């Protein structure tokens, strides 16, 4: 092989390598003549134009390239001369799904005769797609905001309209307005003839929990489901309405006696009680139902629709308070109870505002010596007739109406102040104050108690708080932590009314308490009821072993005192030692 | 797939035939080739084989030819190709090219038959 041939071979191999390399890159390359006719192209170019090589050679690049998104040629259909005159570039979107964007560049090869042009076509879809994506995302978010705005507007219009059209926008049931019109019509019908009917006020229990745990959409779904079940469970001619929130009212017609209304209530309860699934949780809805019966209308004082609903509502409230699974019917007793409750609440509000709650003190004594160890502060409410009401008459109302906090605070402050006026013969001038479970659950309870001690200048060690077992069992962890905090400050904790509630003897060793108070019902059974006597014996013994103080309540006879002493119970209180008394002159009930 | 025919067998056939060396220069043509395309063997021997290819195919041929010698990979060997063949008078006849390559001590040899096809067949149509 001569030198020239060897050189040609070497150059061929070099060219061959370069050609192979050109085929391995991502960009599409083509070399054309001055008329843009393809003389060479690499593999990505063939892929782009989707033709075999021999079909590309000799054809113009303009006719080979795919069309743009708008259907136009990717390159202008010129005679090709312009490509060889100078470099140029353009970016174009291809008619392709997903969108592809090409960047085209052409550069003439100088001094090449005949003139040649190198075309480079780069797929920049990835880069553009990101920008597109961002733009699209922005656009979608903007549309989402607009739709949300429109939806909110629509909801407001629907609600506004619903009032006008007498329909609940969530459930499609008649709303309050629709119900009132229906009741007016029913009352009118009743006045003209004997057409008794009943109003069933149904309050969905624990609806707030569904809303809080699973969101308002889930809450709305439950309301819709409840509506459906109510419609299915009622008879033709009955009316189901939604007053709002978790309150539904069913008006049931053609009833001959009250029992039928109660049967309907039972049927409604069964219908709503079917399991309902929300997320992974199964909920069993239930109602508190109050019934107002409209039957003795002819000749009687005209009853308004408003009054009927109020009565059913009150009956429902009574059912809810009593935790009734069945319905409560509005009757005269309930009417009287409500009147009484209403006047009691009024008196309570007034007493709290005027700081006129009375605190009476009952001595706690050493059963052996009769020495006074301290006193229990017992609250009394001045009634409208000037008489004082005992706690069992108003504490429940105070708890339901969220007045227990200010009530408890006032009693605590007065009890602490009373220590200054206690009889001189008191050995350990301590004061015991009852605490409601609701108070314990209020945030900042411990701080408020300690602040009250500080304000009155009383050593916390002289304060005993009496709590019930139910308070601990309701929130065992948080209550235990709270009680431990109070005990660390020196306050002593006693379990009140022991024996009446859960009364877990096994729990006693674990509770952060200093002692227990045996309920008066056990004390009164001493020597009468053998099993109850045995319970006191066991409690006293266990507390002795655990180092807990035992105070027996309700001691009224010497025999009881003797028996308790014999059992090992050292302390107690009751009429035998002294009734709850106000501080007398000079030791006045502090205001 | 059947083995590609040898250069010898192509050369022994009746179809127009061209033989080129590893530089891409014509070594021999047969009488059929001379008769169909108008070239005399003496005019072509020692000339680049691209002389009988259309202008627009020459660069691609040279690069493909070089690539084969570098990588021994080819898109065109061993299967029929529809191409135009340039005649002595400059005219073009559409023909079926069938190219085979063989390695010898002196280097690569390329033999091809170029069978004329009816005029309506598209140039560059790849049947293979």
Brief description of this entry?
Chain A is built from 22 helices and 21 strands. Chain A is α/β, with parallel strands linked by helices and 591 residues long. In chain A, the strands form four sheets. In chain A, strands 13-14-16-17-18-19-20-21 form an eight-stranded mixed beta barrel, surrounded by five helices. A five-stranded antiparallel β-sheet of chain A has the order 2-1-5-4-3.
Can you walk me through this structure?
The complex is a heterodimer of chains A (591) and B (128). With 591 residues, chain A is an alpha/beta fold. Chain A is 46% helix and 21% strand. Chain A has 22 helices and 21 strands. In chain A, the strands form four sheets. In chain A, strands 13-14-16-17-18-19-20-21 form an eight-stranded mixed β-barrel, surrounded by five helices. In chain A, strands 2-1-5-4-3 form a five-stranded antiparallel sheet. A five-stranded mixed sheet of chain A has the order 7-8-6-11-12, with helices on both faces. In chain A, a hairpin with a 2-residue loop joins β9 and β10. The radius of gyration of chain A is 44 Å and the shape is elongated. Residues 585-591 of chain A have low confidence and may be disordered. Chain B is of the alpha+beta class and 128 residues long. Chain B has a single domain (7-122), classed as Beta-Lactamase, CATH 3.30.450. Chain B contains four helices and five strands. Chain B has helices spanning 7-12, 31-37, 41-44, 55-71, and strands spanning 17-20, 26-29, 81-86, 92-104, 107-116. A five-stranded antiparallel sheet of chain B has the order 2-1-5-4-3. Chain B is globular and about 35 Å long. The model of chain B is unreliable at 121-128 (pLDDT under 50). The chains are: A alpha/beta (591), B alpha+beta (128). The interface between A and B is medium-sized, with 27 and 30 residues.
């Amino acid at each position: 092989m001569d030198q020239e041939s060897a050189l040609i071979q070497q150059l061929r191999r070099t060219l061959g390598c370069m050609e192979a390399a050109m085929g391995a890159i991502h960009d599409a390359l083509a070399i054309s003549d001055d008329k843009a006719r393809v003389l060479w192209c690499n593999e990505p170019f063939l892929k782009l134009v989707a033709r075999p090589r021999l079909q590309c050679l000799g054809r113009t690049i303009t006719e080979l390239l795919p069309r743009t998104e708008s259907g136009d040629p990717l390159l202008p259909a010129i005679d090709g001369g312009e490509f060889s005159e100078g470099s140029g570039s353009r970016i174009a979107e291809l008619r392709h799904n997903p969108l592809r964007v090409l960047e085209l560049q052409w550069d003439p090869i100088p001094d090449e005769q005949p003139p040649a042009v190198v075309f480079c076509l780069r797929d920049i879809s990835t880069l553009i797609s990101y920008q597109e994506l961002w733009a699209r995302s922005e656009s979608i978010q903007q549309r989402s905001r607009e739709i949300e705005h429109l939806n909110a507007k629509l909801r407001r219009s629907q609600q506004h309209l619903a009032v006008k059209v007498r329909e609940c926008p969530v459930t499609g049931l008649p709303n309050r307005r629709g119900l009132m019109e229906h009741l007016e019509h029913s009352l009118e019908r009743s006045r003209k003839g004997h057409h008794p009917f009943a109003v069933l006020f149904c309050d969905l229990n624990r609806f707030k929990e569904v809303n809080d745990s699973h969101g308002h959409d889930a809450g709305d779904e439950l309301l819709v489901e409840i509506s459906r079940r109510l419609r299915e469970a009622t008879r033709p001619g009955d009316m189901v309405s939604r007053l709002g929130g978790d309150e539904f009212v069913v008006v049931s017609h053609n009833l001959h006696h009250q029992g039928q209304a109660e049967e309907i209530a039972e049927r409604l309860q069964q219908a709503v009680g079917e399991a309902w699934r929300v997320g992974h949780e199964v909920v069993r809805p239930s109602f508190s139902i109050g019934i107002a019966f409209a039957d003795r209308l002819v000749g009687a004082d005209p009853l308004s629709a408003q009054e009927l609903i109020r009565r059913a509502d009150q009956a429902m409230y009574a059912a809810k308070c009593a935790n009734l699974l069945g319905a409560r019917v509005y009757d005269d007793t309930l009417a009287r109870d409500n009147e009484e409750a209403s006047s009691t609440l009024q008196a309570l509000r007034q007493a709290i505002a005027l700081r006129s709650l009375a605190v009476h003190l009952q001595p706690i004594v050493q059963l052996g010596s009769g020495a006074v160890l301290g006193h229990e502060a017992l609250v009394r409410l001045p009634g409208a007739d000037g008489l004082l009401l005992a706690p069992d008459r108003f504490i429940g109302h105070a708890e339901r109406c969220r007045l227990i906090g200010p009530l408890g605070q006032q009693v605590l402050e007065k009890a602490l102040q009373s220590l200054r006026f206690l009889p001189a013969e008191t050995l350990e001038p301590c004061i015991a104050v009852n605490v409601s479970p609701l108070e314990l659950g209020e945030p900042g309870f411990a701080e408020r108690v300690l602040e009250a001690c500080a304000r009155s200048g009383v050593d916390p060690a002289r304060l005993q708080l009496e709590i019930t077992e139910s308070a601990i069992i309701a929130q065992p962890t948080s209550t235990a932590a709270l009680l431990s905090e109070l005990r660390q400050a020196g306050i002593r904790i006693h379990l009140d009314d022991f024996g009446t509630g859960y009364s877990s003897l096994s729990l006693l060793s674990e509770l952060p308490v200093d002692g227990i108070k045996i309920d008066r019902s056990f004390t009164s059974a001493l020597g009468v009821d053998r099993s109850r006597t045995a319970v006191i014996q066991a409690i006293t013994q266990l507390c002795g072993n655990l180092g807990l103080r035992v105070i027996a309540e309700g001691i009224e006879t010497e025999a009881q005192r003797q028996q308790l002493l014999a059992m090992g119970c050292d302390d107690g209180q009751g009429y035998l030692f002294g009734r709850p008394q106000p501080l007398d002159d000079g030791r006045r009930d502090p205001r | 797939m059947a083995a590609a025919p040898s250069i010898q067998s192509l050369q022994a056939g009746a179809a127009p035939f061209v033989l080129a060396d590893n530089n891409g220069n014509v070594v021999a043509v047969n009488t059929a080739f001379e008769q169909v395309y108008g070239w005399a063997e003496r005019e072509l021997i020692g000339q680049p084989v691209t002389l009988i290819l259309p202008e627009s195919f020459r660069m691609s041929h040279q690069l493909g030819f070089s690539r084969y010698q570098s990588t021994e990979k080819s898109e065109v060997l061993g299967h029929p190709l529809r191409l135009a063949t340039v005649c002595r008078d400059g005219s073009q006849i559409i023909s079926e090219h069938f190219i085979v390559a063989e390695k010898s001590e002196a280097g690569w040899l390329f033999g091809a038959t170029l069978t004329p096809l009816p005029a309506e067949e598209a140039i560059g149509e790849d049947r293979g």
